Fold this protein.
Amino acid sequence: MPSNKEIAADFHLLGKLSDLHGENPFKGKSYANAAFRIERLEQPLDALTPERISSIDGIGPAIAEKIAVVLKGEEIPALTKLLEKTPEGILDIMQIKGLGPKKVRTIWHDLNIESVGELLYACYENRLTSLKGFGAKTQDQVIRSIEFMQQNRNKFHYATAEAVFELVKEQLEQTGLTQKIDMTGPLRRRCEVVTAVDLLVSTDDEGTLRSRLLTLFPDISTESPFSFTGPGGVPVQLHLASSEDWVHELFISTGPDEHTAKFTPDKNVPSEEDIYTIAGSPYVVPELRDLDPQFPPAPDDLLKVKDLKGILHVHSTYSDGLHTLEEMATRCKELGYEYLGICDHSQSAFYANGLKADRIKKQHEEIERLNEKLSPFVIFKGIESDILNDGSLDYEDAVLESFDFIVASVHSNLKMDKEKATRRVLNAVCNPHTTILGHMTGRLLLSREGYPLDHEQIIEACRDHGVVIELNAHPYRLDIDWRWIPRCIEAGVKISVNPDAHQMDGLTDVRYGCLAGRKGGLLRSMTFNTQSAEEVGAFFKGRH
C-alpha cells in the first residue's frame, strides 16, 4: 500500500507536469495544494474512509477520486498520460534548482533540449540568455545547479544509509550463519553523506553463507567485497572476516586510509583500543578518524545523545508544524527531557504561516498555561526569526524582547556572494536579541549548496557577542558543518544540537546532530543544551 509520502509525490509531479504542458494553471495549483495537505496528514490515507478523504481541506471530489485509484495500487490516468508525452530527460531537467515548469517548457520547446547534458552544453554556448525570462545570472545558476547534481549523483544521506544497514543486518541475522555484523567504512565514521553501505560480517561457515547470500540478494557479485543493490537502490558492500581477524578487519575497513596507514595491527588483536595502545597513541573513536586529531578527546568527554537535557528549536501548528504546542511539549517530556524551546517561524515567513504580533501573544499565553500544567518541565518562549536582507531581525525590538530566546536564521534570498552573506549574518549575530545562530549556511545536503560564508569571522563574532551556534540536526542539514566545530571549541563558542523538528518524530533527529558533532570532536561541556533547564533559563535571562 503506498504511503502518504508516495501519494503526495505523485500529486507534486502531476502538478508540475500539468504546468509543464500548459494545462489550466488552476489544475497545477490544486494538485500542489493536495500534495501539501497529504504530507501533513497524521493518519495514512488507506486508514480513512472515502468520505473522510473528500472532507479534507484542499481535496475535492476529483482529487479524492485520484487518491482512490492510487490506493487500489493503480496509476493515476492523468499522470500516466502526461508522463507518456514527457521525454525522460525533461523529467531530469525538472529536478534542477531554479527551473520551474514554465522555464523548463521554454527550454524544451524553444531550444529543442531534452536532456541535462544538452542543457549544460547550451549554457556553455551562452544560448539560455537568448530566451525570454532568462539572463546571465539564471544561466550561471543553472550551470552551478547541474554541476552540483552531477557531483552528488549516487550519494545518500547518512540516515538513509543507516536504515538500509539495519534492514540488511536483520536479513543476515535471520540466516543463523553470522556471528558478528557491524557497519564499517564511511558509515561507521558517521559521514554525513555516503556512496554505499559497508558491512563487516564474521561467520564460521563461509561456504553456506555465500550460497545463502545468492538467494537473499540475486544481483550480488561473487567476489569479496560482495556488492549488491539494497533497499531503495542504495549500493551495499559486504566484507567477510573470521572471528580471529574481526578487530583487525574492522579497524582497517573503517578507514580512512590516511589514518589507518599509521598503524600495523596484528591479525588477532583483541580490541581497537589495543591497536592504539600498542602504537603508543591515544584512542580515536571512529567518528573522529576523518579529523585525525593529534590530541583526541577522551571518548567519555565526547557528546552523547543521553547528555542532552533539553530540546531547542522546534515548530508547532502555530506556524508550519504538524503537531500542536502541547503535543510537542508532552512528547518531549515523555522522552525524558527537562525543557523545550519552541521556535515557530517569524512573520516574514508567510509561506510557513509565520507569527504576527497577535498570534505571538496567544502562543505566549498558552505556554504559560502549559508550564503550570507540565511543571517541572519548562517550555521556553522562542522564535525562529528570519534574518532579513540587511541582517536585521524580523520584529521590532519590543516584540523581540517578549521572547526568552531567539534563533536567527536565513530563509530567503539565498543566492548571495560571500561578502554579502557574511555581512548579513554578522549583522544578525551582532544584534543583542540574537541568542542562537540557526543553520549557519542554509545548506541542504545533496540538494542545495549553502551560501558561502567567512566562517572565521562569524565564529569570532559569536564569541564576542555570546551567541550560541546551532548544529541543525536534521539529517538533510547538519549545519554547522562538523569540520568547523574544532574552531568553535577553540574560540569558546558553544554549540546547540537542535532538531528543527516540525513534528513529534523529528525530535529524535538530535541523534544525527550528536553523531555529526562527535565527528568534529564536540564535547559534552561545549554543548549548550547539555545544561539543565535552570542553567539555560539563567543564560536567557542574562542576555535581556
